[in-house]
Amino acid sequence: MNWLNSEAFTVFGQHILWSDMVGNLFGLAALALGWRRSIWTWPVQFLAGLILFGAFFGHLTGSAGKQAVVMLVALYGWWQWQRGKGRAEDGHIAVRFATWRERGAMVAAAAAGTVAVALLFKAYPNLSWDPWPDAYIFVGTVVAMYAQARGMVEFWFAWLLVDLVGVPLNFANGFAFSGFVYVIYGALVLWGLRDWWLRSRRDTRPVLEGAPA
């Protein structure tokens, strides 16, 4: 598995690692599958997290820990979508806007989680290259994936907020391919946001078994 942490190629002076490239391509595929509301978004996301865990483990422990959490949330998302499958008329997960209470809870959890994780990173400097933005991305990713698992349109807004910090941070710390992928994430997120937004306005009431759609 050492080849994953070797250099794949160099572009514009940036050294691209195999693990960084492969892991983020899987992450991009997972986001595209999430846009299509395919349940396969979760195993692909889990695989992306596993590869990136291997990329970060040993020298960026905090980032490796983030990927471990991502894998756990991916398992939760798989379970949640399996349980909720069939709620929409097309057989996929039904999407909706979060309630104001849910939004408040997610914002509060994101704020408290970012502070807590950043303080942890500051107490143990070997866990992170830059405590505050790294904590922001860490917690923001988890919140975004939770919202996705619950079929909330706010999932896309959360990803946009993560992108705003993730792009410059990855470039600054040598993970150029991650930075490029985050730029593509931004475009894909806008398309996915439009699709889920429009779907949330449609009738997503459950269809009784045996009844015509």
TrEMBL record:
This is Membrane protein. It comes from the Bacteria. Belongs to the nicotinamide ribonucleoside (NR) uptake permease (TC 4.B.1) family. It is found in: Cell membrane. It is a multi-pass membrane protein. Keywords: Cell membrane, Membrane, Transmembrane, Transmembrane helix, Transport. The chain crosses the membrane at residues 12-34, 46-79, 105-124, 136-159, 171-193. GO terms for cellular component: plasma membrane. Its main location: membrane. GO terms for molecular function: nicotinamide riboside transmembrane transporter activity.
